[in-house]
Each structure stands twice: as C-alpha cells, then as structure tokens.
Amino acid sequence: MHNSFGTLFKISTFGESHGPAVGVVIDGCPAGLDISVEEIQQEMDRRKPGQSRITTQRQEGDEIEVLSGIFEGKSTGMPIALLVRNQDQRSKDYSHIADQFRPSHADYTYQVKYGHRDYRGGGRSSARETAARVAAGAVAKQLLRQWGIEVFAWVSQVGALALEKSYQELDLTKIEDSIVRCPDLEMAEQMIALIDETRKNRDTIGGVVSAVIKGVPPGLGEPVFGKLHAALGGAMLGINAVKGFEYGSGFKGVEMLGSQHNDTFYKDEGKVRTHSNHSGGVQGGISNGEDIYFRVAFKPVATIMMDQPSVNTQGEAVQVSGKGRHDPCVVPRAVPIVEAMAALVIADFYLLNQTSKLRG
Amino acid sequence: MHNSFGTLFKISTFGESHGPAVGVVIDGCPAGLDISVEEIQQEMDRRKPGQSRITTQRQEGDEIEVLSGIFEGKSTGMPIALLVRNQDQRSKDYSHIADQFRPSHADYTYQVKYGHRDYRGGGRSSARETAARVAAGAVAKQLLRQWGIEVFAWVSQVGALALEKSYQELDLTKIEDSIVRCPDLEMAEQMIALIDETRKNRDTIGGVVSAVIKGVPPGLGEPVFGKLHAALGGAMLGINAVKGFEYGSGFKGVEMLGSQHNDTFYKDEGKVRTHSNHSGGVQGGISNGEDIYFRVAFKPVATIMMDQPSVNTQGEAVQVSGKGRHDPCVVPRAVPIVEAMAALVIADFYLLNQTSKLRG
Amino acid sequence: MHNSFGTLFKISTFGESHGPAVGVVIDGCPAGLDISVEEIQQEMDRRKPGQSRITTQRQEGDEIEVLSGIFEGKSTGMPIALLVRNQDQRSKDYSHIADQFRPSHADYTYQVKYGHRDYRGGGRSSARETAARVAAGAVAKQLLRQWGIEVFAWVSQVGALALEKSYQELDLTKIEDSIVRCPDLEMAEQMIALIDETRKNRDTIGGVVSAVIKGVPPGLGEPVFGKLHAALGGAMLGINAVKGFEYGSGFKGVEMLGSQHNDTFYKDEGKVRTHSNHSGGVQGGISNGEDIYFRVAFKPVATIMMDQPSVNTQGEAVQVSGKGRHDPCVVPRAVPIVEAMAALVIADFYLLNQTSKLRG
Amino acid sequence: MHNSFGTLFKISTFGESHGPAVGVVIDGCPAGLDISVEEIQQEMDRRKPGQSRITTQRQEGDEIEVLSGIFEGKSTGMPIALLVRNQDQRSKDYSHIADQFRPSHADYTYQVKYGHRDYRGGGRSSARETAARVAAGAVAKQLLRQWGIEVFAWVSQVGALALEKSYQELDLTKIEDSIVRCPDLEMAEQMIALIDETRKNRDTIGGVVSAVIKGVPPGLGEPVFGKLHAALGGAMLGINAVKGFEYGSGFKGVEMLGSQHNDTFYKDEGKVRTHSNHSGGVQGGISNGEDIYFRVAFKPVATIMMDQPSVNTQGEAVQVSGKGRHDPCVVPRAVPIVEAMAALVIADFYLLNQTSKLRG
C-alpha cells in the first residue's frame, strides 16, 4: 500500500534496489506537453550514484526508457511509464546480512511487517526507489515551467556547518557548481572537506536541504487537510532519512511576537503582496503568490563502515559489519529528490485548483 | 476538496466558525467499540475556548451530539456523525473586516481561490474547525486504548522559554495540572506569566507542542509514500498555525555522526529493542515498537489587538484594527488537537496494517 | 468504509433509518453557486415516504437543514452539510425482529460482518439513507443546470408491464403527472392498478427506472477504469434493490451486427454528431455529446406482509412475520434517487474534465 | 486519471496498443504468496490474439516479465510490476485513419478530450490494455485460491444464440474445451459457426459472458457506496465493449413478486444458507456465502471490414474503410478478462474486510 503519491497528478513507483528495475507510472499529466526525455535524463544524472567522490561509488547508468504515454514527443494524457534498469547490483555484498538487522535501517521493521523481504540492499526501502521519483519529478518540472513555476533546492548544512544566508542572499544559479550542491562556494569547500573526513573515518553525517519555489500563483492548496505546506511537508518527510521539515519562519518563528511575524499586505503593480514573508508563501494552507521556501533535515546515513552490535532474525546477538558502497552524506544527492517531490506536489495542486476556478 | 483525512479510519469535517455548527463524520471505526460520549466531551472541554484566562474568552459549550453510528453504546461500523452547535458567534465583531484582508490570515488566499467566502471569524479557516477533529480524535483514542496505545502531548516551549527536558524526564500525568499544559510546573508558571504579559501588550506569541505515542506495536506504517512519520508530520502541519515538525532526533540529528545516531538492536524479554531511540520509534517509515515522539512548532496567532496596514478586496490600502476574542498563544489549546490528529493517524495505520498481516 | 462517493464532487452520507437523523456532507462543490434550499426540499419531497397511496405510509417531513458551506445564498467552496431529522421512527415495530434475519434483507450479512448492528428498520442498509443522496443530488442538479445539463428519470416498467416506447417518443414533462412517475399516463394507470393489487395481496413487485441525461458536453469520462458509463452503472447498482444496469443498446445490443450497431458520424451546424445513438452518448468511456440514456432494474421489495421461514441469530428456525410500513413497489420513489446519483456522477466528471482541458 | 483500480489490492495499468509495451503495477498484494509466473502466462495465453481462427490474427507472444515485488518466488508486499512488450504492431495499418474518426470507436471522444492522441490501433482505448488487467488478475486468482475462492466465466450468448441453462446445469470444467469458451459443446458449435459466418460477411456480432464466483465467505462488501455487486458491475462495465450488467435475478427479477423472489434462510451443517439464490450471493451489498453470479453484455466489435461514412478531424465527410486485424466477436477472449476483473474485485474486498474483523 501507499506506493502512490498525488491526487490528480499521481505517481506510482515500483522496483527494488537489487531487482531488475525501478520505475514509475505517472497518471494525470495533461495532454499536449512537449516532453524532453533528455531533461528527464539530466535529472537522473543529478541523482545517480557515482557522480562524484563524495557519493557512493555504485555505478548506475540510470538510463530512462519511456514505455507509454508520450507520442510524437508530446504527452497524450495517458499514463506515462518510465523504466530504469538496475545494472551494478552486486547482490553478494548483501548475503552476509540476509538474516541480520542493520541498525537504523528498515530491515527489522520490514521483517516484522511482511515476514518475507528482499534483503538485498534494503529492497524497496533503499533510496534507489527515489530514482523513480526523480524521473516523475522531471516531467512535473517541465509542466511547471509552462506555468512559470521553478523549484530550486540546495545543501544549506552539513553536520554543524550551516549556511546562515537566506535564499535571497544566494546565487541559485551556482547550485550545480560544486559537487556538494551548496551555492556558496566557500562554504561548499568546507562541506566537501567535512564529508571527505567523515568518509575516511568510515562514518556518515547529516545535513539540511533548503528549497524555494518561485512563480506559484495564489490559490494553490486546499483548506483543512490539503494545506499546501502540509502536502510539501508530508512529501519531504517521505524521502528516506528525513527527520524534520519547516517552512517560512519555521521553528524560529516560535520565538516571535505576532506583531513581528505578521506579513502585512500592500499593493504593487496591481498585485497584492506582503512586506515580509514569514508565512513562506502560504497562508491558511493556500499559496499567496510569494516565494514558498522550506528546509528539510536529513539524518546521517545508517550504513557506516564499522562493526555494530545487533540481533538477527532468530533474535541472537550479532555484529553487523559495514560493507557495500554508500554515501557518507546523503544531502548532495538528495537535492534533486527534494526538487522532484516539490514539483510533484505543486503540479498536483495546480491541477486541483483548476476545479476551484469554476464558478457556479 | 481535502476536507477528509485518513484512508481506512477516515474523517470528514464540516462547518464554519460562525455558521450553525461544526461537525465530523468518522467512516471506518470498527464495530463493537464501547464509546463513551462523556470522554469525547472531556476532550472537547480541553480544547474549548474560554477554559482559562490565557485563552480566548469566546464562550462555547461545545456540547457533542451523536447523530449516527452508535447503537446501544457501541459503534456499529457505520459512519459516526458528531455535531457541535456554535453558540457565542458575535458575527458583528467581524463586519468591519468583511472586505479587509487581515495580515497572515487566510482572508486573501480564500478570496483569490473562491471569490465568495464566509468572512465571519475566518469561516472555515478558523481554528474552530479543529473542534471537529478533537471529537473524532476522542473516538480514535478510545479505540487505541483497546489496543494498548496512548498519546500524550504537552507544551514544551512558549516564545523563547524552552523546556529542555526530554519526555522521559517529565511526569506526563501532570500535563493537565497547569492551564498552559506544561508538565514541569515551574516552567509552566513562567510560561503563563509570559503569555499574560504578551496579552497585556495586545500581542501574541508562538510555542512548541511535544508529543509521545506509547504502546504502538511494530509494523505500523507503509513503505515509500505512507511512512508513519510522514503521515504524522503531514497531519501536524495541517493544524492551524503550525510551521514545523520534527521527530526523533529531528533537526539536531543533522549534526550527529552515523555512529552516534544509529540505534543498535538488542533482545529484551523476547522483544527486539534498541538501545537509543534517535529513530523516534520509526525505521524505514514503519514503527519498531519503541516510543514515537515528535515536536510541532506553532507561530504566534495572527490576530493581534493592534492596527496593522493592509489592503481591502478593492486593493485599497487600509488599517486593519484588532477586534474579536483571540488566544494570545495557541499552544495550550493545541495540545488536545495534536493528540487528536496523532490518534487519528495511528488508528488509520493500525487498520491498514491488518491487511499486511494476511499471508498468501 | 465506502460511505463516500465521488472524486472531486464528493459526498459522504451518514445516519440510520431509526437513529436521530440522516445527512450528507458534500465536499467539492464549486464556490459561487446560487443554491436554492427550496429546490433541495422539492427533491426531498419527491423521495419522501407517505407521498401517495402506492408508497409506504411512514410519515417523514424530511425537512432539510443546512449546517455549513452556504453563505449569503451561495456556495463557498467549503463542505456543504445537510441534515434531515428522523421523525416517525416507530422503532417498536422492529423489536420482534431484533434477533431474526428477514429474508433477502441485509440483516444476516450485517450481523456476520459487524457483529453488532442497529436492527431497527435495517439501520443503515435501509433505503432511508438515500434521503441523504437525494439532498446532495439536488445540489448537483443546480450545478448541472448552470452548465446546461439536465437529468430525467421515469418508471418504464412495473412487473411485466413494460413501456416499449423510447425516450424520444415520451413527453418527459409529464413524469410528475402520475403518482407512479410514468410519463405515458395510460400505462401509468395500469401500473398503479398493478401496484394496488400487489399491495392488497400483501406482496411486492419489481420495476425498471429509465433515464436520460441531456446536454452533457463531449469529453466527460476517463479512460480505462473511469469510463463514464461504468461510473453511472456503479452508482445505479449502489442504489438499494437494484439488480441490473444497461446503457445505450444494452442487452439487446448483443444480438446486433456491428454494421447495424455502429453510430456513424456526420457534421451538423459545426458539431460532430452521430446518426444513431446505440452508444448511449458514451464512446470509449467518454461522452460524445449525444444523449446519455440507461435503464435500471429493481427487484421486488423484500419486506412482504406474509410469514416467511428464516433463522435467528442463534441459528434457530423461526417464522418472520411482515410488519412495519413498506413500499409495495420501490420504483416510483426510486426515480429521484436515480436522478440524484446520475447528477452526482456527471458533476464529478465535469470537474475532473476541467483538468483535462489544461494543455502542456 | 483513473488508470488505477481498487482500494487495498490496487492496480495501475499503462501502455498503448502500438507503443513499446503494456504493463501493470499491483500495489497491496499480501506478502508471502507463492506466485507462479507460469500461471500468469497461462492467463495471458487465454486472452492473447491469434489463439484460434475466430479471434483476431494479430500475433503477440504476450510474454510476461516480472520487474519487481517477487523475491525467491514469493510476493514481498511491495508493488508487483508486470510488463508485456508489444511485438506485432503494424502501425502502418493505421496511418490511413490517423485523422479519421472510426464509428463507435473512441477516436472522436479522445480527440475532443485530449487534443493530442496516439491514433495507432486506438492507443490506450484499445482492448490491448486488458492484457495488463489479465496479468494482474492472474495474481489475484492465485491469492483467492489460498482463500478457497474460484472464479469461472464462459460465453453464454453470441448474437441471438443464447444458452438458456443456468450455471448449475453446466459442466464448468469444459469451458476451455471449445475455442468459443462455451461449456455446452453443442451450443459452442453453433456459436462458432455463427462467428465464422459473421466474419465471412466482414461484419461483427455481440455476445454475453456469464460468470460465477464460488467460495466467497460471508461479509465481503461495504454498505452504501461499496456494495460488492456494484463494484463487480462497475468493474465489468469498465471492460471494453460492455453495455450491460446484471447479477442474481437481474432484469428478469423485475417481473417477480417479493414472495417469489425472497431467498428464505435455513441452517445447514452449522451454516446459514438460503433455499433459493435470486440475490446472487449478495444481500445489502455484502456477500452471504452463496454463489455470486452475474451476466455481462458485449456489443458487436466496432471495427468492421466495410466502408462506413464518418468525418475527419477537420470535420469533413469521409469514408472510413475497415482494415487491420480484429475479432469478429469479442466474447471468447473476454472470458479471461471478466474473470480477471472479478478476481481483482474480490481480492480487494477480502482485504478490506480484514479491517471489519477487528472489534473495539
């Protein structure tokens, strides 16, 4: 259950880390959209393993195959199925942990819930599944661009190294200029050094991905249980290793007074605007036309290259040894995933809002 | 759209702040549950306005009427409809803002989205709607109790006054011992003083509600898009005024190393347990049997008793003056709402997990 | 579960036959619709018991109370909750069958499924629940009228008395001219006589309701699992006592050759039309702009005024005696229910189709 | 939208008739089910084109590839993705109709709804999409067998040739003994002759598929909008070319009296049974443990080998000439599709019913 996401722009993902393939079916993409498969591939390349020295060295081409829904270069309104074959599986790396529960992985909980599980590389709990989300998100991004909407995400913290600058102070065109995807290149250097050091210590470290969505028109979001920020938060918390989400003023807003926090309105060139934007572009769950921005906390990756105490499926005490190829820090590769999920949420609510535009 | 919440234990709420009533329909409550209407009423009383000097002075009896689904004291498996009539509406308090957009309220976004809105007290964007959620949550709580599950929430921060103690260090039976609902009674005094002062200044202030769910069996939650913590986070972010959510190690976990953060397993009296619980009781999106704990950030209430610059529906600059009766700090009354939403999420996933227990 | 219907124009009904009330929450009605509560009441009156000598003599005012979602006479886009209090409940009529299973009723199946049930008048399995559907359908009808769409249903068969005329040969303005709701007044007389005779025999009899939907634009319906006629069929089969559904050529179409059955196209005043309409206005699951027409088969009402052999909850053989007040033939009162469900389906697909109108 | 089916045992299909592949993702299959890929293949072979002289001569291997969700021969509870590559596409057969609307096909309605469509062989409106449903249904069948449930479908009518025998009078093991899939082999001969003759006349003809589901326990189905027979009916009406559905006494039940139609209860070996079964195994929308049986009407296939008048996308009058390879009568190949959809519905409601078994 719950391998689908979205209401009108709906995706369903499938596939395990070490099975034949991962893939996604997008149901609800409007017809007539020019879809560039190369652009989908570019997003895949931003997420794929082995892209730099600070990511896992698993090698995957992550080449996208279009199975349906695109005809003569355009979407047809029918389900778009996208497939990525798995290549560098090395399942034998996992045989030693087939009956062990790796600490802070999903091994134990899947075993309890399903009884029978694909233990190779975490099966479906592996972040490899996010390749399917990135593929779908790349289609959503192309749709959003038609509507003048753009999503930017970047690494704003690694361990204790936190970029204190707000997104307005950053040059977001520089995100891809460093392998860690921090647009402040000085900070990027420090982050890379910290990740390098952590990897040498056979350890892992957490981080924060920040994001801003520009160009969202007012009116997206649904009252009560479909608040736009709640959907974004739910989407982000659904990404592997995420521990927290805040938008607008976030946890710091707690300390503010109402008189400081309120975003007063004014009119600018025929548009209703707000002086400040502590609301993060969303008021009462509905976009108000200002930038939507948020932060996503990622824990350190659970797979470390050390021995750790655990138990096995028989309940016996064991030592789990760290093998396999893993990221010392997940955030650089999480950037396109955050963007993909944000794009999927916005596309979905944009479609939903079409029906609100009808009047009796 | 999106006035429903949940998949198998599903609620649909209705009603505006100043309309005839608010209510909820619960679809999916298992049959045969003894339902105490008094217990529902007790939860209503914990949320209701006018309960203490630090809440709004609007007076509502918030008396629950059962319209369906309960027969001879037990649930029948049919929809349970619960109704609360609005009493102390004072709609005229709002006539002066009928065509004004109050800063950081939903007035502007609703106007843009729907064209026609009930401007009295925020209509459906008012926190009055949460009365319906608390009623439904009170049924969910009674169901969870049958399964040995309990939810506790409390105020852990008001403005900059933060309770640094973890939940294990607190006596959760004392939550109701102070009107601010902080179980550390010394801190509670300080919080109350701060709220009093803020109200005297005609201002408002934010806060944090913390929560722990005890007794959740391993196996609740669904892979990928139905992760238990993502559902909890989405639910919390759907509560009015919430700006952030974190669970387990949360944003602080970012700074940890994997070797510090990982929760190693051991066996204790036949049960697989973890030594630490940075995972917050959820691994790979599925409960592991440990306590589930999380924190929810609330911004300062938008209605302040001061004049603020704004625009009206014609786009003209106006001064919005603060009238009406509002909470200087939302968190004391948010406690039962957080508990209600948590109970609804857990009940839903408990039911969903029944189907996972089938084996081919 | 499954007390909701629809995707974007979604209704949730609640309430038992002999509980305090039945009601419905409509989620997704576009904002700004002028809603006439009198028109809702008129539809209620068409369905209500005691309306003529050939229906049950239970007396219900079936007065509609609006609880939310309508402000200053217009929909606000928020949930519209409508309530009908039950009045003439006479629960004691049912005490004698509290532990008996009435043949061809839902008593046995509810008992098995839920263990605990409201046995008074069938509880929620009673056709009284359809009052809530008619209320919601009356809102949908007002919405459809804005879009130029109208739904007509009438009685076309009672027992073996079948009206052989097609809908084009009938004067649909005469539906309400007879208490049996057959627009052919000669046939209506015969039908009424047959129902009278059946009732005198303490028996019941089946019938057919036919319907046509006029003014549906081309494009409504979704491929594969959301075919418009499948949604209509599913909706009709969800009405109490329905045993069959056919649209367009229906079961008789089976005997035709493709060369007879195909509806060839031509152009008429700028519109693509078909010469014949065996397709019943739907091709490939999507409306083509022609009239949509269908037929719904209703079995004879299960409650007869005779003794019948059965078993009780202890599995003992018993005689169930027919008491209470029931319809000798359900179809006259089923007419507004068929219309309501059809209107709900069309409203839902009209909204869904808005999103198809977007182009990439 | 609406390319998914089911609530807890949910399938999502994708793929066009003349694209690279068709496929299906099954979300919600319980873990631990032994899945035989050969059995899936056998069902595919029952549906596949070119299987006999009375079906289309398009040649497709329809070989199933498992992409995910099965590990070491068992389901894992994760999405099961099944893929069938298209082989014998002959897209050039369709170039002549790229801008023409074939009568009684979905060409016109898709063009209106989506603007841009895959015109080759009907794209997604083609019955080729049902290959994906049969694959998913074959998994559902294996699941149902674990629970003692079996589905049988057969051809009971071709044109005016109607098998008057009830299912109890037939030997259902003989369904596969004739290429027309009628278990009465004498009638089968006549049906085959009629289809042969129709094909020689370059025409097509309709038919009826009957079905029975045996072994369904009491309790499946949900009240009001989730009635089991309504779900079956909706599912059947979603199959290409279906015009009608009836269950139990169906349209003939209309002519019966309540005293004839009611199924009186008795106790047999500890089980509550009914003497007759006009209810078709479903009472109040919930299975009562008796056989569930129904009939599905199929119109004649729209593609005939004759010239027909039509219009093109420019609205000009044209003659559409019949080319391509099509079935003269769809019902023999529809048999496994009816079985598949029935199995999917029952599997879904079986899972849903697990949650009803919980008691407060």
Helix amount of chain A = 25-40%
Name the quaternary structure: homotetramer
Categorize the overall geometry of chain A: globular
CATH architecture of chain A: 4-Layer Sandwich
Poorly predicted tracts of residues of chain A: none
The whole-angstrom Rg of chain A is 21 Å
- Helical segment tally of chain A? 7
CATH topology of chain A: Chorismate synthase, AroC fold
Count of structural domains of chain A: 1
Mean pLDDT of chain A: 95
Alpha-beta content class of chain A: alpha+beta
Largest interface: A-B, 107 and 108 residues
What is the spatial order of strands in the main beta sheet of chain A? 1-2-3-7-4
Describe the secondary-structure layout.
The structure is a homotetramer of 360-residue chains.
Chain A: E1 4-5, E2 10-15, E3 21-27, H1 37-47, E4 64-68, E5 70-71, E6 74-75, E7 80-85, H2 107-114, H3 130-146, E8 150-158, E9 161-162, H4 185-200, E10 207-214, H5 228-237, E11 242-247, H6 258-261, E12 265-268, E13 271-274, E14 282-283, E15 286-287, E16 292-298, E17 308-311, E18 317-320, H7 331-356
Antiparallel strand pairs in A: 1-2, 2-3, 3-7, 4-7, 5-6, 8-9, 8-10, 10-16, 11-16, 12-13, 14-15, 17-18
What's this entry about, in short?
The first copy, chain A, is α+β, with helices and mostly antiparallel strands and 360 residues long. The first copy, chain A, is built from 7 helices and 18 strands.
Structure description:
The structure is a homotetramer of 360-residue chains. By secondary structure, the first copy, chain A, is an alpha+beta fold. Chain A has a single domain, classed as Chorismate synthase, AroC fold (4-Layer Sandwich), CATH 3.60.150. In chain A, 26% of the residues lie in helices and 23% in strands. In chain A, the strands form six sheets. A five-stranded antiparallel sheet of chain A has the order 1-2-3-7-4, with helices on one face. Chain A has a five-stranded antiparallel sheet with strand order 9-8-10-16-11. A two-stranded antiparallel ribbon of chain A has the order 5-6. The longest helix of chain A has 26 residues. Chains in contact: A-B, A-C, A-D, B-C, B-D, C-D.
